[in-house]
Every structure is written in C-alpha cells, then in structure tokens.
Specification:
Blueprint lengths: L2 H14 L5 E7 L7 E8 L5 E6 L8 H18 L21 E2 L5 E6 L4 E2 L7 H18 L17 H14 L9 H13 L5 H7 L6 E3 L8 E4 L5 E4 L6 E3 L1 H12 L17 H15 L5 H5 L1 H21 L12 H18 L1 H10 L1
Antiparallel strand pairs: 1-2, 2-3, 3-5, 4-5, 6-8, 7-10, 8-9
The protein binds 2-acetamido-2-deoxy-1-O-phosphono-alpha-D-glucopyranose and magnesium ion.
Length: 368
C-alpha cells in the first residue's frame, strides 16, 4: 500500500475509536514481526497516547476471539490485583459504536489500546538486576493467571507453542519447498542437520503434558524482552504487553521463550555468529526472579522440566523461522529473502550453547 493511502486508512480507523482530544500524530511503532503497529498521539488532558494495531489475519484468523481472551484475562487479573501490585495492563479502547475493534473496508480488524506512559522497552539485557526483574514480572503474571480456568479462554492458535506440530510443518515444507538453489548453502545444511539431530527430543514437554506430569495453565505466549515495559524513572517493570497470544498452554513455553530472548547478547538478528551465546549469569538471575513468584503454584515436577524448556524454545523458534524461509517468508516480516534462514541459524546456535551449559543449568535449578 502506498504511504499516503496507508496514512489516510490509519487516520480513518483512528477516528472510529472513541478517544477524546484532537489527533496530532500517527507514526509506525515497535519491532513486531506479525501485526502492524502505530502510535497515535492526541492533545488530551487525560490520556495523550494510544497504540493502534492491525491484527494480522494470516496469523490470527479469528481476531475477535483474541479480544475476548484479553478481556477475560484482564478481568480475572483485576479482581485479584491489589493497588500494591505494580503491574498495569494496557486498556482496550472502545469504538464510537461500542465495540473493542474496528473493521476496515478489507475486513481487517484494528484495535486501540491506551499507551503506558513514561516507559521504555529494551532490546538487550544490560544488568543482572534487569534480568531478575524480567523473571519476577513473568512469574508474577503467571501467579496472577494460574488460577484462571484455561477452558474459559479460546485457543486462538491451536498449534502455537506445541513444538511437535512445528516439526511436522517443517517436514512438509522441506518436501515441497522451492528454495532448491540454496540447498548447498552452509547455513541451510547446518539448520537441516541441527533439526535432524534433535528431532527425538522436541516432544519432551508435550509428552510430559500427555502423561499428566505438566498441567495446562494460562500462558502469555510471547514474553520476549521487548514486550516488558520498564518505568523510565525507577527502571522497575511496569507492564507486560502484546497480549494477543494469551491462551491455554504450558507455562514452560513462556519461561523458555523469555530466557531465549533475554539471555543471548546477539539477539534475534546478530551481526555475526560469534555474537550469539547463552548468558548463564543473566539466566540465573532471571530464573531466581521467576521462581521467587512461580514457586507459589509450581510443583517440583514443573521445576524439573525448566532446563528442557530453556533448551527447547530456541529450537522451536529456529524451526519456525526455517520453515517460513522454506515456504517463502509468509509468516514473519522480513527485510531480505534470507533473513529467516539467518534467524533460524542464530536460534540453533543459541540452543547448541545452551546444550553445553545444560548440566550447570540442571545443577542450578536443583539449588534455587
Ligand atoms: C513474533 O510479532 P512479535 O514480534 O510480537 C511471534 C513470536 C516469536 C517472535 C520472535 C504470534 O512475535 O512467537 O517468538 O515473533 N508471534 C507470533 O521475534 O507468532
Ligand atoms: Mg506478539
């Protein structure tokens, strides 16, 4: 879509929402790989900034159900939440027609949230106290939601964070892909061999779930570092955002995902392979903060599976990136054709480093 067309569409959609004050600016916002996000600034004494998002229909085929999930979860949290709890959650804004989403001429769904002021999101962790704060925040979120009956939520993405289902999609993509010319590429072969040699271990959490060793609770689904907002003044976590993927699932996927995103100084798009490593010290702090909260609901068996989850999540995301590369980059936003291949390689390198540190990690968990 042309820039001016997009601007006029976003302007129109914004005006469908009931937000007081005159709109003074609308700009693209954030680093998300799925939805299109904008920051809307207004001149208004109560609330000045909002987040407007177009929900990606290729990923979320039933966006209305997401909005229900968010509302059910926040209602539950708000019932338990006392003033002393420091987390605030972005509120959904209503349209002038009284709905929590607007529909554009292409039947795309848009929603508006209040912007949480005076906050900052980080792309990398710079201190152990920040890592501990991240862990504490995720643990607190899980404490707030662990007693919400998972059956009350819609499973908006039934295969999301079910590692074996990503493996099946990968196998199908490998058979039919058309990226043949890159098959001799070292990165391609590395990814393919990496998955092949780990395929026996990828159902570890799902097997434990099926055996009744791990139970289904509520998961955030996407607790990566830049989805946690920190207060600019105190540097304490103030919010956990991007609630689209809230669904019934194993909290282990959340914890593993949070650690893979926080404890790798190279990030998801490293400049060179040697930038990638598993930062054990940061992981130790993050886990300490997490368990301080999560111990209230986690069983001893839950804790035993944490190292497996930490190892599994970069493998899962690597498989997702590699599969998307094979099918022609349809799911994750990319800036160039081989970005998903490089992202996959980065996740597998991280997983390989985690594997080296796994005995230390298991020992740590037995002491925490
Ligand atoms: C996607 O859109 P974003 O950046 O919040 C993805 C996550 C991945 C993440 C990797 C619905 O999240 O699962 O971990 O990219 N979200 C979805 O950066 O697939
Ligand atoms: Mg997301």
């Amino acid at each position: 879509m042309h820039k001016n067309e997009l601007k006029s569409l976003v302007d129109d959609i914004t005006r469908q929402f009931h937000i007081p004050g005159e709109i003074i600016d609308i700009t693209p916002f954030g680093q998300g790989l799925i939805n299109d996000t904008f920051k809307v600034s207004t001149e208004n004494s109560q609330h000045t900034n909002y987040i407007l998002q177009k929900i990606n229909r290729n990923v979320f085929s039933q966006p209305r159900l997401i909005i229900d999930n968010i509302r059910i979860t926040l209602e539950h949290i708000n019932k338990k939440h006392s003033d002393s709890d420091k987390l605030v959650f972005p509120k959904l804004c209503a349209t002038k027609a009284g709905e929590f989403f607007a529909v554009d001429q292409d039947q795309q769904i848009w929603r508006m949230l209040e912007f949480i002021e005076n906050t900052i999101a980080y792309e990398t962790i710079t201190s152990t106290s920040l890592a501990e704060e991240v862990g504490h925040t995720l643990g607190h979120f899980h404490c707030l939601t662990h007693d919400l009956n998972p059956e009350k939520l819609n499973d908006i993405l039934p295969h999301f964070h079910i590692t074996p289902s990503y493996y099946r999609e990968y196998c199908a993509a490998l058979k039919s892909h058309s990226t043949v010319k890159t098959e001799n590429d070292k990165r391609f072969l590395f990814c393919q061999n990496f998955i092949e040699s780990r395929k026996m271990t990828i159902d570890i959490l799902e097997k434990a779930k099926a055996a009744g060793d791990l139970s289904i609770r509520i998961i955030h689904g996407d607790p990566k570092l830049n989805n946690i907002l920190f207060d600019k003044t105190s540097n304490k976590a103030k919010s956990i955002i991007d609630l689209d993927t809230i669904k019934p699932g194993l909290v282990h996927y959340d914890l593993g995902d949070c650690i893979r995103s926080c404890c790798n100084p190279g990030g998801e798009n490293p400049k060179k392979a040697s930038d990638i490593s598993f930062d054990f010290i940061q992981a130790k702090s993050l886990l300490g903060g997490y368990l301080e909260q999560a111990r209230r609901f986690m069983s001893a068996t839950d804790i035993t599976f944490i190292p497996d989850a930490i190892r599994l999540l970069p493998i899962e995301l690597g498989i997702r990136f590699f599969t998307d590369y094979l099918v022609g980059n349809k799911y994750f936003k990319t800036q160039y054709a081989e970005q998903n291949l490089e992202r996959a390689q980065a996740q597998f390198l991280l997983a390989a480093d985690i594997e080296k540190k796994l005995p230390k990690l298991k020992q740590l968990l037995s002491q925490l």
